Amino acid sequence: MYRVKVYVTLRESVLDPQGNAVKNALHSMNFNEVEDVRIGKYMELAIGKTDRNVEEIVDEMCKKLLANPVIEDYRYEIEEVAVK
Amino acid sequence: MKFAVIVFPGSNCDVDMYHAIKDELGEEVEYVWHDAQDLSGFDGILLPGGFSYGDYLRSGAIARFANVMKEVVKAADEGKPVLGVCNGFQILLEAGLLPGAMRRNEKLKFICRPVKLKVENNETMFSNKYDKGEIITIPIAHGEGNYYCDEKTLEELIANKQIVFTYQDNPNGSLNNIAGIVNKRGNVLGMMPHPERAVSELLGNTDGLKLFQSIVRSWREAHVTNS
């Protein structure tokens, strides 16, 4: 089976109000070296045996549901793990 | 005219919508559950506000894959009026029936209060009872109403007069003060403000009633002889 980690963040061109609020909070704590904060989502998927190409499936799921391509970017890591 | 109010798990403005149609507008209306397979008996489709599927993942993201949405797409393709309010608007965006997406409100707060809107286009089937440029007061209640689309889409929205309502005093950071847009064909309207909460003299505001009356007027002109 596969363990898949999916990361979804707002696209660079889209203002992230949450990220900005957190950045300002960090600045007020004197972490002035912080230049940017982007808040996103992290998902873990366990995918069982399949005849299809796993990367293809994950990409399709991201496009159709897990991310909204109008405002979000996504990336993923796929790891094959042995079934116990 | 017969309306369907689509009810998803987590919808919470369905009763207001039903009441607006039945008691204030005086037309036929039924609740339709999210797994319904057939909307052919209805003349107009209403997607109410709320938090369908708990707003999990993104507002409207999961509702968009509910069974009934295939039928909503079909109704839209047939030219029937489809109105999505608040969460209903978010669902229409996720479903691709309208362009763009919603972001968190600029100030990150859930905002619940009446706002002033300007009727930018009064030549749609949802706005023909208003005057062009009319200022109306309609309540909003949302945390994610900060409309976004890319520049090319915005140019198209403007060129095709798809922006129907704008905020007079932008509450949420929405691009170009957009409060409500229609699709190119003009039969699908999404808006964040709640017209169904502004239909009763008793509750002090009837500015939303004309929106529903506009739908009925367009429908009568198209479907009833001697109307």
UniProtKB/TrEMBL annotation, chain A:
Q: Which reaction does it catalyse?
A: N(2)-formyl-N(1)-(5-phospho-beta-D-ribosyl)glycinamide + L-glutamine + ATP + H2O = 2-formamido-N(1)-(5-O-phospho-beta-D-ribosyl)acetamidine + L-glutamate + ADP + phosphate + H(+)
Function of the molecule: Part of the phosphoribosylformylglycinamidine synthase complex involved in the purines biosynthetic pathway. Catalyzes the ATP-dependent conversion of formylglycinamide ribonucleotide (FGAR) and glutamine to yield formylglycinamidine ribonucleotide (FGAM) and glutamate. The FGAM synthase complex is composed of three subunits. PurQ produces an ammonia molecule by converting glutamine to glutamate. PurL transfers the ammonia molecule to FGAR to form FGAM in an ATP-dependent manner.
PANTHER family in UniProt: PHOSPHORIBOSYLFORMYLGLYCINAMIDINE SYNTHASE SUBUNIT PURS
Query: E.C. number, please?
Result: 6.3.5.3
The gene it comes from is purS
Q: Which family does it belong to?
A: Belongs to the PurS family.
Q: In which pathway does it act?
A: Purine metabolism; IMP biosynthesis via de novo pathway; 5-amino-1-(5-phospho-D-ribosyl)imidazole from N(2)-formyl-N(1)-(5-phospho-D-ribosyl)glycinamide: step 1/2
Quaternary state and interactors: Part of the FGAM synthase complex composed of 1 PurL, 1 PurQ and 2 PurS subunits.
Keyword terms of this UniProt record: ATP-binding, Cytoplasm, Ligase, Nucleotide-binding, Purine biosynthesis
Whether Ligase counts among this entry's keywords is yes
State its location(s). Answer: Cytoplasm
* Name of the protein this chain belongs to: Phosphoribosylformylglycinamidine synthase subunit PurS
Q: Name one GO molecular function term.
A: ATP binding
Q: Does the keyword Acetylation apply?
A: no
A Pfam family this chain is assigned to: PurS
Q: Which GO terms describe its biological process?
A: 'de novo' IMP biosynthetic process
Q: What class of enzyme is it?
A: ligase
- HAMAP family, A to Z: PurS
GO CC list: cytoplasm
Automatic annotation (TrEMBL), chain B:
Q: What does this protein do?
A: Part of the phosphoribosylformylglycinamidine synthase complex involved in the purines biosynthetic pathway. Catalyzes the ATP-dependent conversion of formylglycinamide ribonucleotide (FGAR) and glutamine to yield formylglycinamidine ribonucleotide (FGAM) and glutamate. The FGAM synthase complex is composed of three subunits. PurQ produces an ammonia molecule by converting glutamine to glutamate. PurL transfers the ammonia molecule to FGAR to form FGAM in an ATP-dependent manner.
The organism encoding this protein is Aeribacillus pallidus
For whether the record's keyword set contains Ligase, the answer is: yes
Keywords in alphabetical order? ATP-binding, Cytoplasm, Glutamine amidotransferase, Hydrolase, Ligase, Nucleotide-binding, Purine biosynthesis
The pathway noted for it is: Purine metabolism; IMP biosynthesis via de novo pathway; 5-amino-1-(5-phospho-D-ribosyl)imidazole from N(2)-formyl-N(1)-(5-phospho-D-ribosyl)glycinamide: step 1/2
| PROSITE patterns (UniProt xref) | GATASE_TYPE_1
Which biological process annotations from GO are given for this protein?
'de novo' IMP biosynthetic process
Tell me the protein's name. Phosphoribosylformylglycinamidine synthase subunit PurQ
Q: Name one GO cellular component term.
A: cytoplasm
